[in-house]
Amino acid sequence: MTLSLANEGFNYVSWYNGAYANFDSLPSLEQTNANSIATTIQYGIDPQNDTVYADPTATESMSALGATIRGAVAQGLSVMVRPLIDFVNPSYLTGTPYSVGEWRSYFNPGAPGSAGANAFFASYQTMILNYAQVAVANGATSLCNSKADLRGRLERRRFALARLTTFLARRSSATTWRRAYPCSAIPARSSKWGGSDPLNRIGGALTS
Q1: How far apart, in Å, are the Cα atoms of 53 and each of 16, 86, 119, 122?
Q2: Which CATH number fits the domain that encloses residue 82?
Q3: For the chain, which terminal residue's Cβ has fewer other Cβ atoms within 10 angstroms, N or C?
């Protein structure tokens, strides 16, 4: 049996501010016959204030993200955007039980409805809506909101997705923006992903 996949491509990851400009490997993707990429950048988690923030060292700039999306679209690639949150800056972790590189899903801002949880999801929503604005403006067609980032907090994650979907419906047409969704909801056979250097691209998922 031959399996026909709509999307075959790479996670295109930036682990620090400036990586997309310093290691532009989009031209080399043409040799792989890939038709898709997922631009993946990381935001910081501040457990001291229960917020998500753009770290000046670890978070790629929005201008670089936009340029990368435009470059990929110009090459005929479809683009999914995939923001991640991580513990990236030790100065924000002092006095907390977390450390740089610890699995993001362990972060607990507090019980639902608490001040910490409300602050976290408000900042998360601001981050992801800003990310979506850049994506829409530069030609991306889908967005992944990773389930692993918000494990155990499905109600608030769905709320953030609902707000995001409303924004996308107002800013773009159904023919140019496919959907925003939790990664875990993507059919396993809809896509094929691989990994290669220099941008430390890793396996991912993309809607068809």
Answers
A1: 14, 10, 12, 11
A2: 3.20.20.80
A3: N
